[in-house]
Specification:
mainly alpha; two-stranded antiparallel ribbon; 4 helices; 96 residues
Length: 96
């Protein structure tokens, strides 16, 4: 295998970030929490367990996976997350 030539195209150059704004919209308390976490050495703003067990799908993804997930369910960080009570043994917030 030989290299055909030097890399070319958009993927061959580092991306340019002209500002840190990038269209981000947030509330003052959330920005304060983020900057405080960064000032403290980058401690997590969100509890990792909470993040992994919360609904991470957008409506379109959830609709496309309806057959797989079933009603009232979604996906978190590689676990199923119950969003609404659809059976007597299910409760919102349940994960696994």
């Amino acid at each position: 295998m030989e290299v055909a030539g030097p890399p070319a195209g958009i993927s061959s150059r580092p991306r340019v970030f002209e500002s840190l704004g990038g269209g981000l919209v947030s509330s003052a308390p959330d920005v304060l929490a983020l900057f405080t976490a960064l000032a403290d050495g980058g401690t997590p703003v969100l509890n990792p367990a909470r993040l992994l067990t919360s609904d991470r799908l957008i409506d379109g993804q959830r609709a496309a996976a309806h057959t797989f997930l079933g009603p009232g369910r979604s996906r978190g960080g590689n676990v199923e997350v119950t969003l609404e009570r659809t059976d007597p043994w299910t409760m919102p917030g349940r994960f696994g």
